Each structure stands twice: as C-alpha cells, then as structure tokens.
Amino acid sequence: MNLRTTPWIGENRSVRIPALDYEHGEGLGAYVVRTTPTEIAQNTFEITLDKPEGMRYKPGAAMKWYERLPDGTYARHRTLSMASSPHEDHIDFAYRGSSSDFKQRYLRSLMVGDTVYLRNPQDEMRYVPGDSPLLMVAGGIGITPMISLLRYAAFISAKRPITLLYANPSPESEAYRTELDAYALAHSLTIERFYASEGRTIHEGDFASHVHTKPEVYIAGPESMTRALRSAVLASGIRESSVQITDFTGYADTGGFA
Question: How far is Cα of residue 221 from the mean position of the Cα atoms in its chain?
Fold first, then answer.
C-alpha cells in the first residue's frame, strides 16, 4: 500500500497542497495501536497509538479517523481530540461512549498492534505563550484538549496561573481526575468542579472574578454548552480575541451550565 502524506503541522504552510483523495488513502498516515480503548471514567474511554518518528504537532490538536475497507478504499469516521502533548512518545485520544458504529464496532474491534489510518493533526486549540493567566472551561469530554495543553504547559515549566472550570454529570463521569489533581499539586492550577447530579452548574458569575486578570480563555464541550458559555464569557467583559472555542458535536449536554 502506498499512502501519500501531507506535511505535519508545524512545517512550511506556504506550500500549496493539492486536493487529496482521502477515500483512496491520499493524505492518510498509518499508525499502530499501543493500547486498546480503556475506560478512564464512567462511559469515557482513552485509546493510545504509537507516535511515528518525526511526527510534529501542536498541543490542543485533533485528528480525523478513517477505516480501511475490504475493497481498499477508506471510510471517514469522526474527529477525535488528542489528550497527549507533542513531547510525548505516544498519541492519546479520549471519547465518550455512544451507540455510533465508529465507537461500538470499529474502535472496540481494534487490537494492540493493529494499523489505523488518520489524517494529519489539525489545530483545534492553540497554546498562547506568555505569562497571562489561562482560564479553561470544559464540559464533559471537552476536557481532552485541555489535558493536552496542561501537559505541554508542564513540559515547558510554565509558571502562569491556570484555572479550570470543569462540568460533568457526576463525579463518576469525570475523566483525568487523578492527573488533574496531581497537576494542581505540582503547578499553578486551580480546579473548580461542577456536577449536575449535585446541583452544581457553571453560572455567568463564575467568570466575574477572572475578568480583571485578562486571561486567555479556552472553552470546549457539547455545542449547546459552548454557545451558552461563549455568551456568558463575553458578557463578563473578557475580550473576544482572547477566547478559543471547540464544539464537540453529537454529544449530549453535560448539564454543567445554567
């Protein structure tokens, strides 16, 4: 099989790349499964791939998955956010379980050592360098790109203060809890948790105390939640140019905003 690949993120973007025939494998990279999907929280799973030599990408990126069919063509599935940081020797993806064919059949069928096919990483969120505070707002599986950004911040020994507002249906559904708590102990991270099962939701007032710090804001979660959060953040006085938003379409609201 001869796969033609496009440059990794970070290479010269002035090069004009012709349209690729993804259905026939153009522009797809081959990756090897290191660990099969593992449940890391209630109905939340993580899958890990080996990182190919020379691969470069930016923290907060995502990759689109394809499946090679018996006739040699490739069926497009969905995009998954990366929890891993560019300095790591593997690639982590996290996702919520659902009844979709991609998750129920394809991902569950994978074995260690299997080859999977993905498009090159795409910018989803970007790490803004500097000393300004970071305000991260995650709903459910929206924590995935935040984990990538936090791992990168730890790798470069960032000293900036970071606040994470993290909404979930319940404590049992909170992904990466142990890692987040360890990060908070070792770095300048403050975590505020909101569980719908306990009647705790994120309100517009939760942003008010952060306005004067002029933070860089990251928002990720179900689309219905991010729309409401965007309005609340902007209403609090945080400037729009400092806000990055990633919508996770196809996911139910976490119940974390009111």
Answer: 9
In a domain, 226, yes or no: yes
254 in a structural domain: no
Distance CA 257, CA 92 (A): 27
Cα–Cα nearest to 173, from 38, 39, 35, 36: 39
Q: What angle do CA 254, 160, 57 make, to 5 degrees?
A: 70
Inter-axis angle of helices 177-186 and 143-155, to 10 degrees?
30
State pTM to two decimals: 0.87
pLDDT, tens digit (0-9, with 9 covering 90-100), for 126-162: 999 999 999 999 999 999 999 999 999 999 999 999 9
Interatomic CA distance for residues 161 and 66, integer angstroms: 38
Contacts of 28 (CB under 8 A, 6+ apart): 3, 5, 22, 66, 74, 117, 118, 119
Specify the 3-state DSSP secondary structure of 232. Answer: helix
